[in-house]
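Researcher: I'm preparing a figure for a lab meeting and need a structural model of a single chain. I don't have an experimental structure, so a prediction will have to do for now. The sequence is pasted below. Please return the structure as tokens so I can convert it later.
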Amino acid sequence: MNKASTLSAVIAAAGSSQRMDGVNKLFVSLGSKPLLAWSVDTCEACSLVRQIVLVMNDQDWTSAQRLKEERSWSKVTVCRGGARRQDSVREGLRHIKHSALVMIHDGARPFLAPNLIADGLQAASQTGAALAAVPVKDTIKAVDHEGLVGETLPRDKIWAAQTPQVFRLDLITRAYENLQEDVTDDATAVERLGHKVRLYMGDYRNIKVTTPEDLFMARIIAEGMGHG
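Model: Understood. Here is the structure written out token by token.
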């Protein structure tokens, strides 16, 4: 593998599970293993990924270290994150070594498929920035502060962003160094630099577990994949 195609992964898992009714979603059982282990296992087994930086909050750091030892994750470095997601990702990027490209993924998205890694690597190798996304299925309404519809958005032009998102390491590092405002995903930071970001097809099963309802759906998906 030449340096231009080397890939490391930052898995952002430093959130507080505030909307999970007191359940720590990262370590809840999903099928036969903790939810967090799904995406890390996929990266650990993927020959395209040479290094994994797992970013945790202070409360979960010890549990993540224990999980690393239990599952023999040889590629994983566990580091502590920051107050916001973008602070955590920025910290994770500082631990990347000897890779031209970095894949950023949410630890709360367990169903990371190997093809999403490969497709992201290919797209980012061409453009420098790429993210998995899926076309929205619902009609989207833009509303004002009173809940009144201001505009119905053209559905054929709207995609729902997912992770993984893959970038040239120098590009995403510069994007976060120059970022002043809060952003909800990494591609937005790159867009703020004026750099074009390529979409590639994600997976509707690649859900983010944020609420108890999401966890219910994740267990259905896991069971359908033979991990019930």
